[in-house]
Amino acid sequence: MHYVYLGLAIVSEVVATVLLKRSEGFTKIGPTLLCLAGYAISLLLLSLTLRTISTGIAYAIWSGLGVVLIAVLSFFVNGESIDRAGIVGLGLIVAGVIVIQVFSKMTTG
Questions:
Q1: Which residues of 15-48 are buried (b: 16+ CB within 10 A; e: fewer)?
Q2: Which of 2, 35, 68, 107 could disulfide-link 52, Cβ–Cβ 3.0 to 4.6 Å?
Q3: DSSP 8-state secondary structure symbol assigned to residue 104
Q4: Number of domains in the chain
Q5: Is residue 15 in some structural domain?
């Protein structure tokens, strides 16, 4: 169940970050409220994840996959560019998350 919480925390944080741009500096009330709710939900779910996964590992996965998903969504939703170096960097982040999951013995708290 802890990976379900972690996955939902990542999705919630990604949605909140996409809404952060749409809030236009917190001047638009709808996106602002949804953004804040998304971050609150994300942190709640991350805290539930920390019951069974160590903080460092959970945060590495949460932030790493969040960065990749936000970059990909920004490319498709906001038309932001990603160059080759960016793609390589994002690939290295994904590789790092995989290494942590497959080879680290620190994955449980």
A1: bbbbbbeebeeeeeeebbebbeebbebbeebbeb
A2: 2
A3: -
A4: 1
A5: yes
Domain assignment of residue 109, yes or no? no
Which residue from 21, 17, 22 is spatially nearest to 69, judged by alpha carbons?
A: 17
Residue 1 DSSP class: -
Q: Read off the pTM.
A: 0.85
* Residue 77 dihedral angles phi and psi, to the nearest 5°: -85, -45
**Rg of the chain in Å (alpha carbons):** 15
Structural domain containing residue 22: 2-103
